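Schema walk-through. Below, the input block comes first and the output block second. Nothing else is stored per chain. Lengths vary across the set, and this one has 440 residues.
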Amino acid sequence: MPTPRITADALAAAFLAGEIEKDQLVARASRTLGRGPRWLAPLAERVATACGTRTRPRRAALATFLLGDPGFRAALAKGSLRIVDWTTDEPAMRPTTQAVTWALPSIGSVGELAAWLGVSLRELAWFADMRSWEAKRSWGALRHYHYRIEAKRFGQVRLIESPKSRLKVIQRRVLEELLEPIPPHDAAHGFRRGRSIKSFAESHVGQAAVLKIDLQDFFPSIAAARVQALFRTAGYPEPVADALAGLCSNATPADVWNNGEIHGAAAQRRQARWLYEKPHLPQGAPTSPTIANLCAYRLDCRLSALAASAGATYTRYADDLAFSGGADFARSASRFETQVCATVMEEGWAVRHRKTRLMRQGVRQSLAGVNVNERLNLCRRDVDRLKATLTNCLRMGAPSQNHAGHADYRSHLEGRVSFVEFINPERGAKLRRLLERIEW
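--- output ---
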């Protein structure tokens, strides 16, 4: 009797034929095993039930399913199986139903991926780093990323992982040709052309209650396995999806956290170190914002449906979730918040409860720094400070107000005025007239 593992692997290779259907499974397994025994059709149906509505399963996962299937193990026990043909289909693009319309380049093998990127197979393996050698190298020159740790409020830290020049070029091509053609959910407003914090906030103007929820560790909470599943959903064979996920993810070296100049609570640093040492989506890579939006697609679908059931509106800007509605929503907002948090946890993220805000009428309702009470506006105190700065520049000269030492103070002020114009054109026009009167 052949050993169970060899037999199951061969049958898994035969079943792994793209969109899993009962007839395809039976025909494929019949060719592999030489005939179609009575137990084969029920087995194919069980596999289709387990995997047919999901992303194409990984070969190892399918082999594990077969080894645990009582019917298949009973057939193995009879000793009647023999492998007739070990060959499998050539790698090919097999997108899911939703991905058929995405205009993506066809890449059927790792060799084709290397040629498409203009690198050798050895270079591709080095850049993809699927064994997380980056986390084990103690020499900066051999690493693919530059690291910078920033202290946040309440003792928390943020790690910026910036890819070096060659990897950045590769990631930009992946972004432009493989990721940007994939449409994100309509509720996503961050990192999208034609969307901004203005579009994120304007759907919530004049509502009885606005609920703001912040996701914790948005980027590093996206594991490399989830990125790999995204590329398999697009139709790329498993080895190609593995390599693409490796190019877009990173495992942070432990010594990055040994810098004595790093501020922040020790407990927060330990938690961050534990999170970042696993392959994750690096904040700082050009591909990460788009991948984060796409990986949050299911979350956006669930939260949009949840908001609609409560008579509310939902939008998301990166890790900021915003919900708003009328009087009915205002009465049930606290219970609704609990349901949102549960949904977020089920989708693999966590909520930073300290930053959760339920803002009712009569208080300042602010989303991403933009007030949405009656119209889109900025904080009056911030605008008044900018007006005072411009006025002092007129009276005492611009250098006297450059307390932060900006290299190009004029561009700095122009950017701040442009932002006010973007949110509130009327107030921005008054500041623009002051700016134009300054002598540089």
